[in-house]
Specification:
Keywords: Signal. This protein is α/β, with parallel strands linked by helices. It is globular. The chain has 14 helices and 11 strands. It folds into 2 domains: about 160 residues, D-Maltodextrin-Binding Protein, domain 2; about 160 residues, 3-Layer(aba) Sandwich (D-Maltodextrin-Binding Protein, domain 2). The relative contact order is 0.17. The N terminus is likely disordered.
């Protein structure tokens, strides 16, 4: 590859003029920029589709000057190890779901809640803005864990997946439901019993009757795990988008990137926030709705009245619990962070267009 061709391409994509000469520290074609990308989830999962698109674009648009080694489904590090792996440089880049790091990421926990907004393609914009505006959030990633958030993502929407139909909040009462992260709090507040359980054990637990249902699995993953074979009822309970997450890169790795590579990364990230997230998740959700319907899944949504009841049980109590039990002891200005979140929600949520699984099923 001719280096001047890459500079020209990266410069045009970044919307700036390409430098006339590469500094001597930049890597030549026979020694490309190499990145290890390490994820605890499979390549077919929702966030993985976005990550893989980013990585492919980075390789393609750099004309091979950037090479990425991909490690999917815990093939390099196990669940819960990826944050420290990026910090220590044993992985350069990874998807981080904060629900697995609640003690390590107290500020980021302030981004985890339900029943505050409606659209998943607004949530990643909310997270982006708060990351840019709230210094303690940036410091948690960039100083404490020496990682830059390349872009924010999330897990689409999480249905309540049950063996029996759910038509009201009362129907949830007493049910044994597997949860994840802050989703466990939602289960408890709605009257269910949260059951901690590793994802690979869930199908068998449903089959044996140990669980009555599952919450905290995003829709795409739930169908991928074939949960509907045992628990065919997928219910929207009005909780909004699920599982804010971040794709991060080791700060030293980022700082060592040639400037054209940084510009190219920023340009691709701009496309993610500009609509590519919505495009990728919408295509995946439509595909999985079709599959689930063909295999007997039943889709429904709580009535507006029942959704209001559920919201009243969860909010503002869930946010207040973070303020009192996490932010205050850690001396985080939680009130300011939540006010920034409120402003971002008001800005972006009305613009969100990404349809939920039940909405797509109604159109099928």
């Amino acid at each position: 590859m001719r280096r001047r061709d890459f500079i020209k391409t990266a410069g045009l994509l970044a919307g700036v003029s390409a430098p006339a000469v590469w500094p001597s520290r930049l890597l030549a074609a026979d020694k490309p920029v190499s990145i290890k990308f390490d994820s605890y989830i499979a390549e077919t999962a929702g966030p993985s589709r976005l990550d893989d698109w980013f990585l492919k674009q980075l390789e393609t648009r750099s004309n091979g000057a950037v090479k990425v080694r991909r490690y999917w489904a815990q093939s390099l590090n196990k669940v819960g190890e990826h944050l420290s792996a990026v910090r220590d440089g044993t992985s350069e880049m990874s998807l981080i779901s904060p629900g697995y790091y609640q003690a390590q990421l107290p500020v980021t926990r302030g981004l985890e809640w339900y029943y505050r907004m409606n659209r998943a393609d607004a949530l990643h914009l909310v997270c982006r803005d708060v990351y840019e505006q709230f210094q303690p959030l940036r410091d948690e990633w960039e100083k404490r864990y020496r990682a830059k958030v390349m872009y924010w993502t999330n897990w689409y929407y999480a249905p309540l997946v049950t063996r029996e139909p759910i038509k009201s909040v009362e129907d949830i009462r007493g049910k044994r439901i597997r949860g994840y992260g802050v989703a466990n709090d939602v289960i408890q507040r709605l009257g269910g019993t949260a059951v901690p359980m590793a994802a690979p054990e869930v199908y068998t637990a449903l089959e044996r009757g140990v669980l009555d249902g599952v919450y905290g699995f995003d829709f795409i993953t739930a169908v991928g795990y074939k949960l509907h074979e045992i628990a065919p009822y997928f219910t929207d309970i009005g909780d909004g988008p699920h599982g804010p997450s971040a794709t991060i890169i080791n700060m030293r790795t980022w700082e060592a990137f040639p400037e054209p590579v940084k510009a190219l990364c920023n340009d691709i990230v701009g496309e993610i926030y500009g609509g590519k997230y919505t495009e990728i998740f919408d295509a995946a959700a439509r595909q999985y709705v079709k599959t689930a319907l063909a295999e007997g899944a039943k889709f429904s949504s709580l009535s507006d009245e029942e959704k209001r009841k559920a919201k009243a049980l969860v909010q503002p109590a869930e946010v207040q619990a973070w303020l009192d039990n996490v932010a205050k002891p850690a001396r985080i200005d939680g009130a300011r962070m939540q006010s920034l979140i409120d402003a971002a929600i008001a800005k972006y949520d009305p613009q969100g267009t990404l349809k939920r699984f039940d909405e797509l099923a109604a159109q099928a």
